[in-house]
Specification:
The chain has five helices and twelve strands. The chain is globular. By secondary structure, the chain is α+β, with helices and mostly antiparallel strands. The strands form three sheets. Strands 3-2-6-9-10-5-4 form a seven-stranded antiparallel beta sheet. The chain has a three-stranded antiparallel beta sheet with strand order 1-11-12, with no helix packed on it. The protein has helices at 16-26, 77-85, 98-103, 114-118, 179-182, and strands spanning 30-31, 33-38, 44-49, 52-57, 60-67, 87-92, 122-123, 132-133, 138-150, 155-167, 186-187, 193-194.
Length: 233
């Protein structure tokens, strides 16, 4: 194999800006968590984060990495609200709600609610104070489990236990979530987002909890090829 076509960037040569560009360009696609929180005055904050994934299944847990503000190093409103209240809601970002989600990423002053400024409709949650975003077909109420400071202190990982899932019947049949119907969007490097695009079907080779999609159970509906995506237009 020819190694000449690779550029090697060693850790010792990395500043924060270069490291950011490399990591967000290499770790793709990333799901987008559109997080709602509530501040001390009861104002609802909504902001998207793509350094996000699930980290446990029993109980279900999500983790989101929230960096300090570039330049000032200040704490972002979402991070402050999570640490103060111990609660948040993760709303799944989709093609349908992408424009509003993206606009909520702007740096609004702390006293301004993105929900009110952008006219984002919300629904009351069952277990936490933060509301759910009505435009999202999947909303997960979370209670804070752990706060982990990372690296040089710029990033903090917030791990939350999902205490309730709210699932639109258009994407959930009572058994599984239909990822194609969900139409989630993902973050790429720079200013780019992506949809699901082409979907590749491969049966799971290790048995997951419940066995759905496992190659050893060919009768399972999840082992059959996914229907092609339809053009929303």
């Amino acid at each position: 194999m020819n190694d000449d076509r690779y550029t090697c960037v060693d850790r010792d040569a990395l500043d924060t800006e270069t490291a950011y560009r490399l990591i967000v360009g290499c770790v793709v696609p990333r799901p987008v968590a559109w997080i709602t929180t509530v501040d001390e005055q009861g104002r609802v904050n909504a902001a998207p984060f793509s350094s996000f994934n699930y980290v446990a299944t029993s109980p279900p847990m999500l983790a989101v990495n929230i960096a300090r503000r570039p330049g000032s190093g200040g704490v972002k409103d979402t991070a402050r609200n999570i640490e103060r209240s111990g609660e948040f809601v993760v709303n799944v970002a989709t093609e349908h709600n992408m424009e509003l989600m993206h606009r909520s990423a702007a740096e609004f002053p702390p006293e301004v609610s993105e929900i009110e400024a952008l006219g984002i409709p919300v629904l009351a949650s069952r277990h936490v104070r933060a509301p759910r975003i009505a435009l999202s077909p999947v909303q997960m109420e979370c209670r804070l489990d752990q706060v982990v400071r990372l690296g040089r202190g710029i990033n903090t990982l917030y791990i939350g236990e999902v205490v309730a899932f709210h699932l639109d019947r258009e994407v959930y049949d009572g058994h599984r979530v239909d990822s194609v119907a969900l139409r989630p969007i993902a973050r790429l490097g720079g200013p780019l987002y992506a949809g699901l695009g082409e979907i590749f079907h491969r049966p799971m080779l290790q048995k997951p909890p419940g066995g759905e999609g496992w190659a050893g159970d060919p009768a399972s509906p999840a082992t059959k090829p996914t229907k092609p995506m339809k053009d929303p237009s």
